[in-house]
């Protein structure tokens, strides 16, 4: 059966990768419906269980929404941070999921391990963007050049844009932790306290 998404562009590709391409471990997939009903957690935030037909990602008119395992059931015991937000990297590192490299699973992945430091952060600590946790399951073309131009200074990233669903906000706040957890990204100490005038 084919999964149909009704959004277009990068979020469609990324949501499809993260939500429909996982091979969930047997223990996770075997959760009973009763355990799902008793759980108090959406696949992102506890207490916010959203049916597939209403999640804004799946096509509510596609019959697949009746047969797909609900994310809250499949991800019931995945690790979360202290705010209840799913920690995808830890979930992957623990072997609870085994993402396919693409639709067929035969595609080659090229994980890269380097960070980009964003220094235009007003008085906040600098932002460290780690490529490794992103590229162990997303190819470069998921983000470049559609979301981020791969060029120093080529992306006028602001928190307003992220919260509006641009740049990092294409995923964060939808299928990854929300952009309101400042210390998850603003982790690099500044040389001096105060505003920058660059």
Q: Radius of gyration, Cα only, in angstroms?
A: 18 Å
Number of helices: 7
Q: Name the poorly predicted regions.
A: 1-8, 16-43
Morphology: globular
Tell me which oligomeric state these chains represent.
single chain
Let me know the average pLDDT.
Answer: 76
Helix percent reads 10-25%
DSSP, total strands: 3
Our estimate of the beta-strand percent is 5-15%
Please state the structural category.
alpha+beta
Structural domain tally: 2
Which strand order does the major sheet show?
Answer: 1-2-3
Q: Quick one: biggest sheet? A: 3 strands, antiparallel
SSE pattern: HHHHHEEHHE
Write a structural description:
The protein has 198 residues and is an alpha+beta fold. It folds into two domains: 10-93, no CATH class; 115-188, Cytochrome C3, CATH 3.90.10. The chain is built from seven helices and three strands. The chain has helices at residues 10-20, 26-29, 33-38, 71-74, 88-93, 131-135, 159-163, and strands at 115-118, 126-130, 186-188. It has a three-stranded antiparallel beta sheet with strand order 1-2-3. Strand 1 (115-118) and strand 2 (126-130) form a beta hairpin. Residues 1-8 and 16-43 have low confidence and may be disordered.
């Amino acid at each position: 059966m084919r999964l149909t998404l009704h959004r277009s562009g990068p979020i469609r590709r990324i949501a499809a990768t993260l939500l429909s391409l996982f091979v969930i471990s047997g223990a996770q997939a075997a959760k009973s419906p009763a355990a799902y009903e008793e759980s108090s957690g959406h696949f992102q935030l506890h207490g916010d269980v959203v049916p597939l037909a209403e999640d804004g990602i799946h096509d509510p008119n596609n019959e697949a929404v009746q047969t797909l395992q609900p994310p809250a059931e499949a991800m019931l015991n995945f690790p979360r941070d202290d705010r209840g937000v799913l920690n995808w990297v830890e979930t992957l590192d623990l072997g609870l999921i085994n993402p396919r490299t693409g639709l067929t699973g035969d595609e080659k992945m090229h994980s890269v391990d380097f960070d980009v430091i964003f220094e235009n952060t007003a008085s906040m600590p600098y932002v460290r963007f780690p490529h490794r946790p992103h590229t162990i399951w997303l190819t470069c073309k998921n983000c470049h050049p559609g979301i981020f131009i791969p060029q120093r200074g080529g992306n006028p990233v602001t928190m307003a844009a992220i919260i509006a669903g641009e740049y990092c906000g294409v995923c964060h706040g939808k299928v990854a932790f929300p952009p309101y957890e400042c210390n998850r990204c603003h982790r690099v100490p500044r040389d001096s306290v105060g505003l920058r005038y660059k």
